[in-house]
Design goal:
Order of helices and strands: EHHHEEHEHEH
Structural class: alpha+beta
Length: 153
């Protein structure tokens, strides 16, 4: 898909990994948990994602440059009368593209793809420290309806 601003959204490839990992590491949280200098674990993860039809790892490209990434996971379930839901993860926009509308276009893409995959619910989590992201998601119609929990393994 391409919009009038020359932006395309397409599946990520191995050639995109350096740019993706750099964006994952380019914030206070990512800087402590990502390792752009060693792509080996990311290559293995990309292979797992690529082999799973319920995973959509995409990049946004403008002028032949990766400027964003997003992962969309499709989750079949029993609750909600057997509803399928999607989970938006790892949304990152290159620092010089922030404010360009790319984040909005990315989430719109994820919602469109979720509908195409017959999902009845789109959900996401956002670290409690990301207050700007919370305002962004609320502006797009998401509601902070649940409390999330994590257990580090």
């Amino acid at each position: 898909m391409t919009d009038t601003a020359g932006l395309s959204i397409r599946p990520a490839t191995a050639d995109d990994l350096p740019a993706i990992v750099a964006m994952l590491a380019d914030d206070p949280l990512g800087a402590t948990r990502e390792s752009p200098e060693d792509l080996t674990p990311y290559e293995a993860a990309l292979k797992r994602l690529s082999d799973d039809p319920n995973q959509h790892l995409v990049v946004a490209v403008r002028a032949d440059r990766v400027v964003g990434t997003l992962q969309l996971t499709i989750v079949p379930g029993l609750s909600r009368k057997g509803a399928t839901r999607s989970i938006i993860e790892g949304v990152r926009v290159h620092s010089d593209e922030r404010g360009s509308g790319l984040g909005t276009r990315f989430v719109e893409w994820a919602i469109e793809q979720s509908r195409a995959d017959n999902c009845s619910l789109v959900q996401l989590t956002s670290d409690v420290s990301r207050t700007d992201a919370h305002r962004f998601y609320e502006r797009l119609g998401f509601t902070a309806s649940h409390v999330g929990f994590k257990l580090q393994l």
